[in-house]
Automatic annotation (TrEMBL), chain A:
Keywords (A to Z) from UniProt: Signal, Sugar transport, Transport
InterPro entries: Bact_solute-bd_prot1 (IPR050490), SBP (IPR006059), TAT_signal (IPR006311)
Taxonomy, superkingdom: Bacteria
Protein name (record): Multiple sugar transport system substrate-binding protein
A Pfam family per the record: SBP_bac_1
Keyword Signal: yes
UniProt-listed PANTHER family: ARABINOSE-BINDING PROTEIN-RELATED, DIACETYLCHITOBIOSE BINDING PROTEIN DASA
Automatic annotation (TrEMBL), chain B:
Topology term for the membrane: Multi-pass membrane protein
Claim: Nucleotide-binding is one of the keywords in the record: no
Name this protein carries in UniProt: Multiple sugar transport system permease protein
Alphabetical list of Pfam families matching this protein: BPD_transp_1
Domain ABC transmembrane type-1: 92-310
Source organism per UniProt: Microlunatus kandeliicorticis
């Protein structure tokens, strides 16, 4: 059977496996990686790699781009989390992995400080874009544009109007108190056992929900210097956290939601008629989910309402997706041409279905150009467009001064501690204190 | 009877007749073929495992954070910071639970199932093929599959757990017990999913060891009046120890490095996070590669120590 030599082999195998564990983070280099690799300025006859967490646009559209420019596009669809890891690993190791890739709003501060991406104002005409792209400010850090938004994701409040009306709520709530009262009415009328979805799983969706709710309570999470603005019980962030945790404790939110993520909540609760409202939902969800018969049992029942605030309508906070050019890109100029084309108003009209069904980009949320959104609303191709357009116009960045470089650590503290407060393993006060301590520590650079 | 290849000459063989003589003659003339054949794998291992591993060991003593340049020597600073980090300590506790429960359960179940599969029966091949499916599935796919089963609002197992919670009136905040709420229950359920995944390989490894035990030993034991339980204790278990040791080492490696199951099932919550999840967060979320290297090194050392203990304790040389 196994001899003494085999015992050594067994230990060697364990050592080998352990060595692979060691390589987990060994792909990182030792410098900031902020310098460009000196990619080719060639813009014709080249193939660029575009890596995004999305299916590709229609093949005909990409072929058309190749015909116009001579640039071939190799589209790589990678899930969001893996994509962020690849961006960090490749930039730190100063290796190429894509010519154009995702720039999430939440990483703008980090990427801006690290200088891992080309400043887009040097590659495309961002000044002209700015007037028609309200969310371009979310991608600007220290005067540099890190990425160009290719969709207009922002947080909105959705309600199942039919359920609200069934409970006797005929006028949509305009303040957070009215909203809470309406949810209690829906519950007490027995229309649905748990009327509100809050995704309490320890994931990014919980953090963004809290930011939006904090905005509704009339405040912001961090100031320009990164100092927490939510430490006292009368602050908006503290009230928002209390309101959210009270909602699950008081039976407005399904108890099982402590392990529900934002997308799960939309797909399995709101779209299936299990809840009546989401305070911080995806913009565009009505057209892409709730009104899709194959995925929803609440077709034509869900509406956007102006975000209920303390005394009236609150602003919607933006969380858009952008696209930028890593410094290690092989063909940065060709990638810039692609981004210009991909984020142009004309192409977004195609992707949104304004110019025929065959040009639709499946899974495309909302165009980042305000003018395209307006055209969609006027043509009737955007469900609830009349509500969405002013919301996008008035949308604000989560962090007016730009997301801090340490945002990922801050967000981790937010969602793990709010999750813990929802499970009852810690108080809201303790959760807020831990989040604030984390923010203070990170802001001080220690 | 010996199933091992012996290097010693058999009785009656003289030193001149040893089969090693031709090998010595070949050794004088350099034959590049074996080296050429091994070279691609050797280059692969050295380039993708050993060099990064050495690099990691060295860098674990440096502050490596692109957000806080320049890279500088910190001695044991990274290790001290990790051991003062509540999230790391919490995940160490969770991981210790995963290792103890996962290795124990997968080994016990592996032995039990391998013994059941030891004797031929109709459909045995099909049973083995079905058995191996959980092991063949990627961890993320399994996590998603079990997410449905544990679904807090509609999952079957979660409904049962909820009922149990209601019966006993447990659960924080007046709600019922659920995945993610009670730490012990959460890590137990996460480990249950991992045991479901790693046990098939344990079964196959132990089954392979059992297949090498000659049937004559069982026949002789039966003639001597030994019961089935006695045969299991005195023949099966001792002779299967090398296979059990291999199965336990692979279970130690799998459970110490568990990532997919807790991450997919329970997110980043402290109630279930593993030490490799912390390595990921520290390295790729916080971009503190120095601490990431240090934590990876600690995981490696712990893996080696536990593996060594398992091999020294469980493994016995067997010659049949």
């Amino acid at each position: 059977m196994i001899t003494r030599t085999s015992r050594r082999a067994l230990l060697a195998g364990a050592a080998g496996a352990a060595a692979f564990a060691l390589t987990l983070s060994a792909c990182g280099g030792s410098s900031s990686g902020g310098s460009a690799s000196g990619g080719s300025s060639q813009t014709s006859g080249v193939t660029i790699t575009v890596a995004l967490a999305s299916d590709p646009p229609p093949k005909a559209a990409l072929d058309e781009f190749t015909k116009e420019t001579g640039i071939k596009v190799n589209w790589v669809n990678i899930d969001w989390d893996s994509l962020q890891t690849k961006i960090s690993a490749a930039a730190t190791a100063k290796t190429y992995f894509a010519d154009a890739t995702d720039v999430d709003w939440s990483r703008v501060g980090q990427l801006g400080k690290l200088g891992w991406f080309y400043p887009m104002e040097t590659m495309v005409d961002t000044k002209t874009m700015a007037s028609d792209m309200p969310q371009l400010t979310s991608f600007t850090k220290d005067g540099h544009v890190v990425g160009i938004p290719y969709d207009a994701s922002f947080m909105v409040t959705t309600v199942n109007e039919k359920m609200f009306q069934k409970a006797g709520v005929t006028e949509m709530p305009k303040t957070i108190d009215d909203y809470t009262a309406a949810l209690n009415k829906v519950k007490s009328a027995g229309v649905v056992k748990y009327p509100l979805n809050i995704p309490f799983a320890a994931a990014e969706g919980l953090s963004t929900y809290w930011y939006e709710t904090t905005g509704a309570f009339g405040g912001t999470v961090l100031d320009g210097a990164g100092k927490p603005q939510f430490t006292t019980p009368d602050s908006a962030g503290y009230k928002a956290a209390t309101w959210m945790v009270d909602a699950i404790k008081n039976g407005l939110v399904p108890p099982g939601n402590i392990n529900v993520t934002d997308s799960q909540g939309s797909q399995t609760l709101m779209a299936k008629g299990q809840v009546a409202s989401i305070f911080s939902d995806y913009s565009g969800g009505i057209g892409t989910l709730y009104n899709i018969k194959s995925a929803s049992s609440v077709v034509d029942q869900v509406k956007y309402i102006p975000t209920p605030g303390v005394t009236g309508t609150a602003a919607n906070l933006g969380n858009p997706d952008g696209i930028g050019i890593p410094k290690q890109a092989k063909y940065p100029q060709a990638a810039a041409k692609f981004i210009e084309w991909f984020t142009s108003a004309k192409k977004q009209e195609d992707f949104a279905g304004l110019n025929g069904q065959d040009k639709i980009f499946q899974g495309y949320a909302l165009p980042s150009h305000l003018s395209v959104l307006q055209k969609m609303s006027e043509s009737g191709t955007l469900p609830e467009g009349k509500s969405l357009v002013p919301m996008l116009q008035g949308s604000k960045p989560v962090f007016p001064e730009g997301a801090p470089a340490w945002y990922p650590q801050f967000s981790n503290a937010v969602y793990t501690n709010l999750h813990a407060a929802a499970t009852g393993s810690m108080t809201v006060d303790a959760a807020i204190k831990t989040i604030a301590d984390t923010a203070n520590r990170l802001a001080s650079g220690s | 009877m010996s199933l091992t290849r012996s290097a010693t000459p058999g009785p009656g063989l003289t030193a001149e007749a040893r089969p090693t003589a031709p090998v010595r003659r070949r050794g004088r003339r350099f034959d590049p073929l074996p080296y050429l054949l091994v070279a691609p794998v050797a280059i692969f291992i050295v380039g993708l495992a050993l060099i990064p591993a050495v690099f990691t060991v060295v860098q674990s003593f440096f502050k490596v954070n692109p957000l806080d340049p320049p890279t500088r020597f910190t001695g044991l600073g990274n290790f001290r910071a990790l051991l003062a980090d509540d999230a790391v300590i919490g995940s160490l506790g969770n991981t210790a639970f995963y290792v103890v429960v996962g290795v124990t359960l997968s080994t016990v179940l592996g032995i039990a199932m391998a013994v059941l599969l030891q004797r031929p029966f109709r459909g045995r091949s099909l049973v083995i093929a079905v058995l191996i499916l959980p092991w063949a599935l990627p961890g993320v796919v399994e996590g998603i599959l079990w997410t449905g089963i544990f679904d807090p609002n509609a999952g079957l197992i979660n409904s049962i757990v909820t009922q149990v919670g209601q019966i006993f009136g447990t659960g924080a905040g007046g709600t019922t017990l659920l995945l993610g709420q009670n730490r012990l229950l959460t890590i137990s359920l996460i480990e249950l999913v991992q045991v479901w995944q790693i046990t098939p390989l344990s079964v196959l490894l132990i089954l392979a060891a059992l297949q090498l035990i000659p049937g004559e030993l069982y026949e002789a034991a039966e003639i001597d009046g030994c019961t089935r339980w006695g045969a299991f204790r005195r023949i099966t278990l001792p002779l299967a120890r090398p296979g059990i040791a291999v199965c336990m080492v692979q279970a130690v490696i799998a459970t110490l490095n568990v990532f997919d199951q807790p991450y997919v099932l329970n997110g980043a919550a402290a109630t279930g996070s593993s030490i490799t999840m912390q390595t990921y967060f520290i390295s790729f979320q916080d971009l503190d590669f120095g601490q990431g290297y240090a934590l990876s090194l600690m995981i490696t050392v712990v893996t080696l120590i536990i593996s060594l203990v398992v091999v020294r304790t469980i493994y016995r040389r067997v010659e049949l």
